[in-house]
Specification:
Helix content: 40-55%
Number of helices: 3
Structural class: mainly alpha
Strand content: under 5%
Number of strands: 0
Order of helices and strands: HHH
Oligomer: single chain
Number of domains: 1
Distance between the termini: 29 Å
Radius of gyration: 18 Å
């Protein structure tokens, strides 16, 4: 994130047009079967290689925890 910020500030200093598009995917995967989603992304949409591995890593083996009163 620091690298992105640094690059953006450098571009602004050089008076270049700077656009940053951020995408929050976290809630999009909360209510679907992850195995079926990955299978469909691969078979129907043709995702493979690094992109599919990144998405697999992003949505598998994750846990959530809520702390109440410490």
């Amino acid at each position: 994130m620091l690298r992105v910020m640094s690059d953006a500030l450098t571009a602004v200093d050089q008076r270049r047009v700077t656009l940053i598009d951020l995408l929050d995917l976290s809630s999009g995967f909360d209510c679907v079967d992850h195995f079926l989603l990955l299978q469909r992304l691969e078979r129907t949409f043709g995702l493979s290689g690094m992109v599919l591995r990144w998405l697999t890593s992003y949505i598998t083996s994750r846990s959530q925890q809520v702390a109440y009163c410490g």
